[in-house]
Amino acid sequence: MEEKQKTFPPGFLWGGAVAANQAEGAWQADGKGDSVADHITAGTKTSPRRFTEQIRPEENYPSHEAIDFYHRYEEDIALFAEMGFKVFRISIAWTRIFPKGDEISPNRAGIAYYRKVFETCKKYGIEPLVTLSHYEMPYYLCEHYGGWTNRQTIAFFLRYCETVFREYQDLVHYWLTFNEMNTLVSRFGTLLAGGILPEDGEDLFGTKRLGSPETAAEKSRRFTALHHQFLAGAQAVKIAHEINPENKVGCMLSAAGVHPYTCSPEDVLEAQAQMERSNWLCGDVCVRGAYPYFAERFFRENGVQIRKETGDDEILKNGKVDFLSFSYYSSRCATADPKVIQTAGNMMLGVPNPYLEASEWGWIIDPKGLRYLLNELYGRYQIPLMVVENGLGAVDRVTEDRQIHDDYRIAYLSEHIRQMWEAVNDGVELLGYTPWGCIDLISASTGEMKKRYGFIYVDKDDEGKGTLERKKKDSFAWYRECIRTNGASVLSTNKKEDKL
Question: What does the record list as coiled-coil region(s) (predicted)?
């Protein structure tokens, strides 16, 4: 009997993903206010990005220009359409709609801009997948309200949500609430996810904080901010469904699989505990509508006190998401041995896996870990999943004939796609796949331009110099063929054939 050709399910949503603060630029155009990202400087692998209270002329703030998607969106979306995108994940900059965050009426120029972007997507048959808050909280809310530590922020966020749900109800039907909200479980998410401002000049990941024990008050502040986001997200789901019953709203996690570093029972338990804290705590609240059973002990032993109010549990129960989305770049190992050195990957600490290779930025490459994670997530939640970030950050070089040969990226993505297909055949309901930085953009973690993910090269360097010209990489044609064949072109090849 002839074997049936391997493909993904009909209607699978192939696409790509960007974020406003890393792509748009035009940081003060048409009434836009400052976001927290606009106060974060550039950095490198060895010199972290820093937060500054005031915008300093002598500093380089990558979000200010980014790749100028704001003025070039028509050109970029046309290139996405040429690849055959079915879906495009993009975020709305909250500060384009409400510049300070607490206004009563929205900025009409911002409303008009995103309408044009979404209309352009629709012109090409591309479904927008819109993240409501992607590391771009209004700076005014951080400075004057304490970010998400203040319960008032919920009302400001919901006013923003209701505004865009109504304005774009004819154009957008897939929404995500908060980008990688579980980064608030760790100290790395304090600024970007929580809008909790550090000291002036402190680096993005809080080296000063990480170098000293975190107090119970600091932990309580982070988890209170996370609780407020849970409440805001749940109420946003409810509002979205009321405005348009066709709306589908998902949560979004930074979901790395955690392996025990050794077969020691202590390491196995530590890996289990890290999966609980980093994945299941946020997933359970968003999908199941309640804090998980293990949360009480974790909060008690860490001195965490969350300022909950009467009715909060009911809000969470009535605001469950329709699907769960997540970013996946790497896995990590966990150990109970304090002598083992841990490193950071996508804002989570972990032990490098001795059986796997790492990217140039030290992120462990583990395609099979994606299959493992998909099965773990689907087994626990039994709702549709979507991989909305995945990719290889690498230095791309333009050859003398002005080509970009990124076979390493093709190989990375191919193996992850194969493992997604394996998970689908395991029985996982997977809606779609949007690789991160489908066009080169500013790195969130380092602020670099040379850490590139895209199928499309953007002529710009780490100092902000360049023409911003767009150029197709080898991976552009490879991904176009992958989409055209619904994955068959990738699934029919092996690792050695992962080049054009």
Answer: none
